[in-house]
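Wed. Picked up where I left off yesterday with Amidohydrolase family protein. The coffee machine is broken again, so keeping this brief.
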Amino acid sequence: MTQSALMGAAVSLTGALALALPLGGAAFAQSTPVAITGGKVLTGTSVIENGTVVIQNGRVVSVGTGPAPSGARVIDATGKTVSPGFIAVDSGLGGSEVSSVQGSNDLASGANTISASFDVSYGLDPWSFTLPVARLGGITRAIVVPNHPGGGGGNHKDDGEDDFAGLGGGGLQSPGLFAGQAAIITLAQGNDILIKPRVAMIAPFGEAGARVAGGARGAEFIQFKETLAEVRLYARNKAAYDRAALRDLSLSRADLEALIPVANGTMPLIVTVHRAADIQQVLRLAKEEGVKVILDGAEEGWLVAADIAAAGVPALINPIDNLPGNFETRAARMENAAALNAAGVTIAIKGNEGSIHRAREMRYNAGNAVSHGLPYAAAIAAMTINPAKIFGEAGQAGELTPGAAADVVVWTGDPLEPLTTATNVFIAGQEQPISSRQFLLRDRYRNGGTQASGMPAAYNPQ
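Structure written out below (tokens, as returned):
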């Protein structure tokens, strides 16, 4: 490629990047109230026909059937649907641009000294091209989770590296059993998308966890129990550890510190697990060790739905996972979401393929779940109030209720219908652009650009 061609390519890339950048700095909530009137309001827990939602200073002020307050900006939602912003779970939004390009993927750590302590919040990119696309799908918040570098299954990376049990350099587990700590982000336009770091720990179980521990499920459970025993030993004897007067431990100090909240039950552990038998063993382990778990995947959960409900354990599921890709998912079926919900399990519905580029499809998945027996209200809850409850944001997100964050979406119709689009998206009271890099590039180039030659504006033919 000639130097001029390289320069032209650089100019084109620069122009494309410019199209994707936020139009302004940090978003500030409006002081003038906004009233969304006349629409069908899905609050997350109920339905209000011909409702009015009033937001101001980043919060929901009122939800009901009254008139708009004096002086408010009024958005007429007659014939439309108004919902809370959706919360994407088990997502990589803001943490990965192209999964196959290592330098743009900050969701996994292969260092055996940094496993449980790996914190995805430090790798978040507020200018990711994926965020506006997800936002157009009604997603206003996401739970960003790290991927495990050595285990397959679920939403976790399987790169074939370090896929064995044992001790690495310094006597540390390689790869570590834990993938790291999740974070909550906002999809609002601006320079800072982090809401809360370190909200949950991630670990693969089932086949993936067995591979890390040496090839057998039983080995993983023993390794997990031994790890928690070491964490508790360290927590009781930090002074001795500092003096090198404590026996050698299999984890680094950073990982030991990160696991203390898991060991004492204050930080939930997201467990990637699929097979019904594995789910039962995870529930048993959680009870024995006093840890708080969240099931991720649970394709065969319907077989043990009563056990999951009795344990009070929530599940992050993809309702369209209905084909047995391996022996862990032999009993996968489209009715899984309906069966879990009917048993009393709190479910949250995921997007597809890591919930990054296809995060917006979570609402399509919810629609499919409804067509296979999940009540409509439960499907909406599984994208709004349920994720908020699971991750400690109840009352703050996922619901249109006074005092909650003003994450509000106005839809042209039923949000579970694929042809429905968002006409207005508010995050923390700030209205977001209804656009994305793809739309901007389409508008820029579809008429041949602006040059007299008819070539696109950033095109250099030399």
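Quick read: The first helix runs from residue 3 to 20.
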